[in-house]
Amino acid sequence: MSPAGKSILGRVKNKFEQILEKEYLHDIEVAVRVVPLTPEEAIGKPLRRDFPIIFGKERVIEADVLGTRGQAFTDSPEEYEGTLGDLLSLGLSTNQERAVFIASLNATLSHLGLVEATVHCKDEEPERCAVAIAETVAARCGEVSVGLIGLNPAIAERLVDRFGAGQVLITDLCADNIGKEKFGVEVWDGASRTADLIDNSDVVVFTGTTLVNATFDRIWELIQARGKRYFVYGITAAGACHLAGIDRICPGGGE
User: What is the mean pLDDT of residues 80-103?
Assistant: First the structure.
């Protein structure tokens, strides 16, 4: 939460409204179509088959604003159609509402040239992206311990390859992953052990999907309170990180 008690998305929503007014988009009838994508539409055909989107735990929804696309990951995909002004009436109290708002925000800010990488990379690009993220962490932070919040298997594997299993911690919210060993690292329960991960990591790498599932604010508070270095990764966080002044890394995204 901010000092005023407002969530990151609440602050982002206020800034988004200002942008719509400045660009004369608030009252214009702009269709915002949000459609859940199939796994193949979202990430193509990567060789590895352990991405959550492939076995049905997540979906990507895509918004189209004036011909520009923006995407967001969610476990609660929902179609939506309205205007940009209509988005401001969303309460952002459910995963569905947050995903619709975020995908549409990403599409709008991409259309205005304010953000890049709002569309997920495909085929073998996610593997190259994971290598780039691990190498970026090493280049900027050195030989550190890394906490990964949200099990992205490609990123997890490359972090372990680069830093060693003993230097990587992982939390996740999916019951199928909790307590399992992935690449030599036990996956902790994100609902109860995120603070432990942050306390015991030099650097925290966490997914922008936390904006959709309403865990971002708590993670951000802990990172700031502990003075930890961090990397927010992925397409979902594009617009929100830009408007909130939060660093994001997304080496392979498009649009």
Answer: 90
Residues 199 and 138 reside in one and the same domain: yes
Strands 80-82 vs 68-74: parallel, antiparallel or unpaired:
unpaired
- Are 203 and 97 found together in one domain? no
For residue 123, CA distances in Å to 45, 127, 206 come to 5, 9, 22
pLDDT tens for residues 204-229? 999 999 999 899 999 999 999 999 99
Residues 151 and 173 in one domain: yes
If one counts the domains in the chain, the total is: 2
One domain for residues 26 and 104: yes
Q: Check residue 56 and give its pLDDT.
A: 41
Count of CB atoms situated within 10 Å of the CB of 4: 7
Q: In what order do the strands lie in the sheet with 146-149?
A: 181-182, 185-189, 168-172, 146-149, 203-207, 229-233, 248-249
